[in-house]
Amino acid sequence: MTGYMVDTIQVRPSSLDTYLALVRDVAVPVMTKAGATFESCRATSPALGEDVDVQVTWSFADHVEWNEIRKNFVLDPAWHDLARRAAPLRTGGTRRFYYPVPDTVSGPVSQR
Amino acid sequence: MLRRYEMYSLDPAAPPAAVRSLADAFLACGRFIPEVLDSAIGTNLTDTPVRLVWEHAYESPEAYQRYMVHPFHACILDRALLADSPERVVTSNDFGAGLVGYACDGPVYRLPKGARRLVLLDLAGDDVGPLAARIAAHAADVDGLAVSIVTANTMGSAWMDGVTPITGRPPWSHLWEQGWESLDALEAYRDGDSPLAVAERSGWDGTPGVTVRRSASVHYKLKTG
Q: What residues contact B9, with CB distance under 8 A and at least 6 apart?
């Protein structure tokens, strides 16, 4: 079953561009090289007077594949450098894994 | 069986509740991943730069491999552990003992209660036999020492499948795992003048064929779930 690792990171608005550049220039190449698939990067507005949520989603085929991906990035010095650079930019955040659910919820398509 | 230790330094800025959650997750691990046996945790009482210790075991490499791919491992444990996780509560350190362990024929490590001590050894060579023999010759005479195992740290480099080394020789090549009836008994040993304590304090001088380049230890009161 496909899995999705969703990091929801809080950063100060002044750090947003730096954080997004880190995702684009370092995280995507490092994680992709390890075997993960980059799904999306979205952010809340930086103009609301509060920290910005940056939500980055990676996917993998299943937890067997994730274990291999994990091994690959843990052994990659670039991933450790990424972690070192990202940490001071965060003011908070969560990491959660998601999985597809049975199509039992009526959505916009089925309501047409 | 595979005997395994994870040892972590903690981020002083980590919320105490998050640290407790990680410790609880270690203790609860066997309920979610039945392959995880004999989970216990402790807070290191030595000045070694490690704070939280999780000790546990697996029946076989196959059992360990099932743990590695279990969602509880990735979703709950790694949330607090991986360097890039926003919920990380541990810190990186260069102590080199994040993961250590060894293979054994049965639960020789088992200690229902008391205190655990793990001596980390960096030997110049690979043969720990003479040192193990020297320790075995005196271990039975030490009051309160219920478990004494001297062995190579095979898990330090074989952390992916429990068998195959994927990194080089670990910084701590060998281990002396001890189980004590109580912390008092451990402290009495450390402060005492038994042949074993004297030899340990000397850096194992006089052990033929064995050069201990350096050693360190952690110990803690055992907390089980």
A: B49, B50, B51, B90, B91, B92, B93, B95
Do B87 and B113 fall within a single domain?
no
ipTM of the complex, rounded to two decimals = 0.93
B85: nearest CA in chain A? Answer: A95
- Among chain A residues, the shortest Cα distance to B158 is held by A71
| Chain segment A65-74, per-residue pLDDT in tens | 999 999 999 9
Find the CB nearest B70 among A63, A80, A87.
Answer: A63
Domain boundary among B27, B58, B91: B91
Distance CA B186, CA A9 (A): 45
**Owning domain of residue B117:** 107-224
A7, A63, A75 ranked by CB distance to B71: nearest: A63
* Token pair in block for residue B90: 């541990």
Give the residue from B15, B10, B31 showing the smallest Cα distance to B225.
B31
Provide the whole-model pTM.
0.94
| CA nearest to A86 within chain B | B84
How far apart are alpha carbons B108 and B3 in whole angstroms? 9
Could you read off the pLDDT of B154-175 as tens digits, one per residue?
999 999 999 999 999 999 999 9
Interface contact B166-A75, CB threshold 8 A: yes
